Amino acid sequence: MKNDILHHLTAARPAHLDPDRPTPSPVRGEELATVMSRPRATRTARATARPRRVGCPLVSGLALATATAVAAVVITHTAPEQPGPAPSATSGSGSQVLLAAASHVEQQPAGSGTYWYVEEHLGSLQKIPGKNYTVDVRTEQRYWTAAAKNKQWSQLLDPGARPATKADEAAWKADGSPTSWNLMGETVTYAGRGEIQHDAPGGSADVVTMGDLPLRLLATLPTDEKALRKRLFALVDKDYNAPEEILARIVVDTAVRLATTFPSTPALRAAAYRLLAAEPGVRSLGDVKDHTGRTGYAVALPSPHEPAELRLIFDKSTGLPLGTEKVATRGGDGASKGEVRDYTTITSMKWTEEAPPFDTDTEDPGPVSAPDEAPDPKPAR
């Protein structure tokens, strides 16, 4: 029997999603698509991503994709020493850019190792209430994946928040250079908290959210983009009871993860690029710089379920992913049209024999509640 998606969302949904309330269907569709398409996250990251929870820690509430590194970090992809010429990102359409990137990425060596290691720097841009500057609330995430064993280790760190731009830094200094800020009931600091938590397989914090692809299935996925779309749709349709347009969106979100941080083979990553190239509305953004200052080229994918677009940034010589940005397409919810809401920068992505530095979970910090909100029930062990 399929899982009833509304049953899974009951605890997390906002009040306006209650079936007995006269909520417009576009709003309901947007909320369902957003929650269903979240990637795998640790317990803390999942808890802090709940919609409009006032007391959620911002440093780890970045499950949707999306920290400025203090200095530029060179991505450690396994790549040829003499890469081919860069695709023409500025002259082609978004589809053409993705197809060119696919041609490059499928030529990269497959690599091998026990663990697929990914390090991401995440950022959420937050305006300081009553001030005229924005801070970049940063998080670092590290993953070790043993795909053959369907296991993953993860580590979440808080390196501290920083003024988002030089203009913000000047305004911050004029404000007396404060070292902490209260944002939505959560204190964010300049110094950061260091490690927030780590999660090993088999512990109480293991989370596989809706829309995720079991790691053991990666080796079975086709490398033809049309067959890949059909296979991904069959997988989500088998497990989740939702409208076809919502399932199709989960397919796209899964393809983005196959294209970026999953331990995909070069052929599978290229197939994910080509699947995305066929999406309506994909457009080229030309040459861009990521949040570590590296130059790449980017495409934008529109979202039919929220006022934002997802921007994918690629290395110019290899076609490998550098990161993502989520950009507001209209004003509202504290963001202006065109503003970056959050981002993810991939600073390391490689096969390695180096094991994760932990094999147990950190202690579960428990649910987080706003000052005027009753605590959530303690999770069952």
Rg (CA only): 20 Å
Number of strands: 14
Summarize the main sheet.
10 strands, antiparallel
Helical fraction equals 10-25%
Beta-strand percentage range: 25-35%
Overall form: globular
Oligomeric status: single chain
Which class best fits the helix and strand makeup? Answer: alpha+beta
H/E series:
EHHHHEEEEHEEEHEHHEEEEE
Query: What is the number of helical segments per DSSP (H or I, 4+ residues)?
Result: 8
On the 0 to 100 scale, the average pLDDT is: 76
Distance between the termini: 26 Å
Care to describe what's here?
Helices cover 23% and strands 26% of the residues. It is of the alpha+beta class. Helix 4 packs antiparallel against helix 8 (266-277), helix 6 packs across helix 7 and helix 6 crosses helix 8. The two termini are 26 Å apart.
Give the gist of this structure.
By secondary structure, this protein is α+β, with helices and mostly antiparallel strands. It has 8 helices and 14 strands.
How is the topology of this model organized?
Layout (H helix, E strand, L loop, with lengths): L2 E2 H5 L15 H12 L6 H6 L45 H12 L9 E13 L6 E13 L4 E8 L3 E2 L2 H9 L5 E4 L2 E4 L4 E6 L25 H15 E2 L2 H16 L6 H12 L5 E7 L5 E8 L5 E8 L5 E8 L11 E13 L29
Describe the structure using short key phrases.
381 residues, alpha+beta, ten-stranded antiparallel β-sheet, 8 helices, 14 strands, globular, disordered N terminus
